[in-house]
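Record 1 of the preview.
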Amino acid sequence: MKKALKGTWFFAFALLLNGTWSMEAQAIDCEQVRAALDIGSGTTKMVVARVDFCENHVLEILAPVPGFKLERQVEYQKNIVTMPGGRKFFSDEVIAQGLAAILELKTVALIHGAEAFSAVATSAFRSVGLTQALALLERIREETGFRAVVISQDQEARLGFLAAAINAGLPQENLVVWDIGGGSMQISYWNPTTPGSVAGYRGNFANEAMQRFIIETLQGKDYPETKSPNPMLRPDTMIDQPNDLSRAIRDAEKAASQEVPAGLRDKLRAPTTQVIGIGGVHFNSNCEFLRRFSSDGCEFTRQELLDQAYRYAHLTDQELFMEGLSASLAFAKGRVSGAALTLGFMNALGIDRVRAIKVDMGDGILIDQEFWARPEEQAREAALAVTPQISRQRSFSR
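->
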């Protein structure tokens, strides 16, 4: 009898041990270190994280560390060349710069143990000819070993909204997520009539378009040859009189008044609605310009941003950088124009307060299975990703 009990006990213990081991093995099998790249119109950004892809949630962000950025400035939108007949191409220079940035970020990802890569391209890639966009995506695949795809503006809006909802910790039905990038803008809310989708505003009047308007229309200069719209005002400008800053704000206000749909306006008027700002203009530009940048983001009112814009619109890029209003000299050119763009839409839509948080397209990509290959494909791509590629220096035919 004792032997039987002993055998039963041993068998039960073995089952328990085996079950525990199986659960642990299953948990490990569901984990993967992923690198997600957002090839934006003016900046290429990356996030590296350990992900549970069975439950679709991020377990740990490995890079960038809190308070730091993992991005490279690559101005695809500004370097679109329009040929006779209207065909549009990226310049060879920005293609080379973009590939170098992606390869550099890939190296960083591998240092953090990245096992799988995914990259999405947004507005600028939607603006050029389909043939060249596909050719450049293929070249990225050849030189990096991983795939990049162009996503629609609706996909961009959905990814941003879902990532913001997770990071903000707020009910989806109470959110309006406002994403301003270099080449496009999305203001989105959860669509109650179509599960899993978002509705709202989709437009191309973003920071690059605002800078072009200031340089070409207000300042009368050649946009491709002008590095920055700053300074926008002279130190002796009378702020109660029409000036380039007030005209820029009014132009953004006009665009919002004409283009934002009624459904979004109604959502913004609801007393429970909270506006969450994401993307480079909100989290980086506006928070830095207000000297409130932190890993947790920042919050600002319309009046605070307006006061700051008039206080510093007479500064050059170098002076903005030296005053601590931009973390880098390269991005200083977008600080005042980004504030003007934001203020115009806040005025038109009656938005008094924005909470800006650190959410990029990559945060949404990490947990969306649509952007990740099947296991056997990932193994093949991973082998390619760690193999140095011979750079193919070539131009795209026009």
